[in-house]
Amino acid sequence: xxxxxxxxxxxxxxxxxxxxxxxxxxTPFARLQPPVRKIIHCDCxxxxxxxxxxxxxxxxxxxxxxxxxxxxxxxxxxxxxxARRFGIHSAMATAQALKLCPHLIVIPPNMEKYRxxxxxxxxxxxxxxxxxxxxxxDEAYLDVxxxxxxxxxxxxxxxxxxxxxxxxxxxxxxxxxxxxxxxAKIASDWNKPDGLCLVRPEEVDDxxxxxxxxxxxGVGKVTAAKLNKLGAETCGDLRSWTLQELQHHxxxxxxxxxxxxxxxxxxxxxxARERKSISTEETYTPDIPDLAGCLALVPELWESxxxxxxxxxxxxxxxxxxxxxxxxxxxxxxxxxxGSVPDIDTFRRLMDTAWHRxxxxxxxxxxxxxxxxxxxxxxxxxxxxxxV
Length: 388
Known about the structure:
The protein contains 13 helices and 13 strands. By secondary structure, it is an alpha+beta fold. It is globular and about 60 Å long.
């Protein structure tokens, strides 16, 4: 066994036995549609910050953030766990982060260095399966259902991957192993940092039932607040709702909520996806009465969009920024401009332009970016400021 495998024990939901299940089509699990798959979600712990601490060991043990300068309206791209203890998180304004932790060390991103580490990590993933779906520079889904490595054990594969990342790249990674993408991603956060969590098919039901609804894929702050107001705090609570009731309150997304709260996710791991845009949007009840109300909601939408861009590793592909408005009369309008950095003030200006085309109450707001080819290594990260 590789020495790196022993750095931290892994966690298995519902049992203390450190053994693995080799899943196959005969594994009893009525709640998920067949076939039962073996999915790994793996991502590195505070990736940018970990690379910086690897290259400068004097940074270890100190609150560290990678991001833009406070005097240039920069924001935090990521931070280490020492910084998180002060309440600092990604997409937070650097100025606010420094108020929470005055001795915070802030360094600008080095995207070329992170891309080199990313290529090493992706090479490791691809030695176990061709079905690798990257979500960001360091994060990916792997479908190892058909893999014969490690005797077909998804848990042993995940252990090996984590050990190889540590030995090759010099940083730690966490992984979740489950029968679908949704549960695997939740599981990868369960024992961070440097952890592994296995959720067997027969354990999915209880595991998901206890999750707060905000953990559901696609549920942002606004939707979570609406669900809480309607009496659904956990996925178990949400299961008491019929499909028709969920669709009444949340439209087409209601069907997705109905499946996810039961641990059902039939999405396949795809290595051929080419994104053309990334966006986030929210429907508001009651309608937003005026422009001031719309502008007040931009920061929340911007934070959600920023997180999605980072998870997709699309910081270097942004070509345009846009906002979408659906008015109370269901008329829609979109305003966009050329830009490679999704600056919050630009979104505010676009929102102003779009709203004045038909000044009236608003039902839906959205922010997004349109993507092109990956830019050169000099392309600024999402969270850097042009003066950095």
